[in-house]
Structure formats: C-alpha cells, structure tokens
Design brief:
mainly alpha, globular, about 5% strand
Length: about 140
C-alpha cells in the first residue's frame, strides 16, 4: 500500500513538474491535460504528499508517520503559499486562468533537458534511498 502511494505521488509530481517550465498546462505525449488531479491547483505538492503518505504507511511506525505528517504539513503549506504568490506576480491572470482551467492545454513533447533542469533525477534518487531504507529495515 505504501509503495502504491509513493508511486502515485511520483507520477503526479513528475507530470506536474513538466508543466512548470512554461507556467501553463500542457499535454504529455498521448496524455490528457497535464493537471493530474483536476481539483488540485498545486499538483507538485499533492505528489509530494502522496510520496510522504506512502513512506509513512510503509514505515509501519507511528513516530515516523507523525514526523512525516508534521514536516509535510508545515513545509508544503508554506511552499504552496509562497509559490502561488510568486506565480500570480509573474504570470498574473494567466496563472489564475490555469488554476481555474480556463486555458486550453498546450502540446509540447517530453524534454529530457527540461526534466534534468527541474532536477527530476533528485526525485528518483530520493525514491531509491527510500526503498533502500525500507529494505534495510526488513533485513535488520
């Protein structure tokens, strides 16, 4: 169950990160509108939350789950507020149109250069470390 949550979180975060480059929604090749969850204006943070929930469940520790919950609650809410203010300042009405789903999706092919620029390899490294820690927990 925890691995499923982490996988869904990474998928949502990866799709959302691809949109950040242009500040507007776009389509993934063969995909629908980039917003992975229509009710979420900040899908990167939803993805991070799902990863954290998955890690909390997989850890089977109430202490670890509480630490993850507190950390995510504090950091992601502050980051979301700060980022929304920045995007509104930078893109004005275009950002509000994106959040309110009033913009038509743009089509743009996947770019490895953009993914590396968004440091997506850090996300994958974090998942690998998380799996390694869980594997170590099973062994010890």
């Amino acid at each position: 169950m925890g691995h499923l949550g982490r996988g869904c979180g990474h998928r949502g975060g990866r799709r959302a990160a691809a949109a950040v480059g242009g500040g507007s929604p776009r389509e993934e090749p063969g995909g629908d509108d980039l917003r992975p969850v229509p009710l979420c204006a900040a899908p990167l943070y939803l993805g991070s939350s799902l990863i954290g929930i998955g890690l909390a469940i997989a850890s089977t520790s109430l202490v670890v789950a509480a630490i993850i919950g507190i950390y995510l609650g504090l950091t992601l809410s502050a980051a979301r507020r700060s980022e929304e203010a920045h995007l509104r300042e930078k893109f004005g009405d275009a950002y509000d149109a994106y959040v309110e789903k009033r913009m038509a999706p743009m089509t743009r092919a996947f770019s490895l250069e953009r993914a590396l620029g968004n440091r997506e390899h850090h996300t994958i490294a974090g998942l690998v470390v998380g799996f390694a820690l869980l594997a170590a927990k099973i062994v010890w």
